[in-house]
Amino acid sequence: MKNWIWIIVVLVAVATAFGADVKKLNGVFSGLKVGQHVKMTDHGTVFTISYFESEIEFPHKVVEIGENYIVVRDVVGIKEIRIPVYAVKSVVKVKMGVE
Asked: Are 37 and 57 in contact (CB under 8 A)?
């Protein structure tokens, strides 16, 4: 009987670890979401990504967010840029108004 309990505990642990396919972003891109407009500032070897708290049209739109990269497309739809996390200097959230 004790062997069955251990087997069930192990199965539940494995199911919990591998069953949840939802990724929660806690890294540098955690404030961004797909479809959001952003402003890209090129500093030569790195980028600064800026976005407003409220939805304001910017020259680029987030297309995809991975664990270690982000993909943005210009509003015209001509260029799509895949930026690795090591090429991001900062992600800046601009708040409107005084709290």
From this structure: yes
pLDDT tens readout for residues 58-96? 889 999 999 899 999 998 889 999 999 999 999 999 887
CA distances from 11 to 21, 65, 70 (A): 17, 31, 35
Q: How many helices (H) and strands (E) does the chain have?
A: 1, 6
pTM: 0.68
94, burial (CB in 10 Å: exposed 0-12, middle 13-18, buried 19+): exposed
Is 10 inside a domain boundary? no
> How many structural domains comprise the chain?
1
